[in-house]
Amino acid sequence: MGSGQRMLNRQKCILLMVERAGRPVAHLELTKWAFLTAEETPSRGGACFYDFLPYRLGPFSFALYHEIDGLVRNGYLRNASRAGRDAWELATDVRADTARLARDIQRDAAGVVARFLDVGSDDLVDYVYDRFPWYTVNSRIRRLSQRPVADAAVYTVGYEGCSIDRLLNALMRRGIQAIVDVRRNPVARRYGFHKSSLSRLCANVDIDYVHVPEVGIPSELRRDLGSPSAYSRLFERYERELLPKAQDAVRRIAHLVAGKPTALMCMEADPEMCHRSRLAGSVADVTRLPVHHLRGKTCEPASSQPRS
């Protein structure tokens, strides 16, 4: 079975869990097992394991479900049921090479399965909720924590190096309630960052999504950016020629920023290597609010720039 496409170690880890269970594994079970592998084991599932965010039944990973759909399509897993719940089970002739996983990941993933295999869904949810109350902030079951609301400011963020789950979780933790996508062409190979999927996933966690292409930089102007000086020249041109033509869009963004905590989002992690830093200054001139550039795994402030 399988399409021959190279399988990621995190996907092999998921298959190992289902294999060690020896039975169909309910969607909720597998999600929580993966989460506990990431949070409570020394290996954390490996360097590129799944990230999680608070969702309807606690910690959840959009990327995990997306990749499991691929495992089903490629014949490694198949849909099943367990105790009336949707579940997954291994295909009978699957060859996933799970034995090639690092030994510490195998040990940790198998240990989580052994520990929780006979724990009922309600008890599993109770354990996760009590240990990790942040992940209950969007729960339909019960909420043990509340989402914060950020102070008024012009926030910016870059998604480079982040999964969609990590980015949205970090923005929720920071109290951001809306994203303004300032890319001219909002397409991305990485799952979750194409305009259509990003808009849908944001809506699922009650984050508003707005795309304002008028404030982006045309792709033809972004060629040959091989040095910091080339970026500086581009952004100077952006401020001098492009932003003056987009003042209606700037005022629209300013109105959004004034209404709720909003992050101007583009790709680059470093705000100084992205036009959003110059755009944020223009928005701040309208709103008279400070600029906070968020970056890193937790979206903590990279800098604060009060406007005079």
Please describe the structure with a list of short key phrases separated by commas or semicolons.
disordered C terminus; Cobalt-precorrin-4 Transmethylase, domain 1; alpha/beta; elongated; 2 domains; 308 residues
Report a brief summary of the structure.
The protein is built from 10 helices and 11 strands.
Shape descriptor reads elongated
Strand segment tally: 11
Element order, helices and strands? HEHEEHEEHHEHEHEHHEHEE
Radius of gyration: 22 Å
Strand order of the largest sheet: 8-7-9-6-10-11
Helical proportion, percent range: 40-55%
Named at the architecture level, the CATH assignment of the largest domain is 3-Layer(aba) Sandwich
Strand content: 15-25%
* Terminus-to-terminus distance: 63 Å
CATH class of the largest domain: Alpha Beta
The CATH topology annotation of the largest domain reads as: Cobalt-precorrin-4 Transmethylase, domain 1
Unreliable sequence segments? 297-308
Q: Please work out how many helical segments DSSP would assign.
A: 10
Helix vs. strand class: alpha/beta
Biggest sheet overview: 6 strands, mixed
Mean pLDDT comes to 92
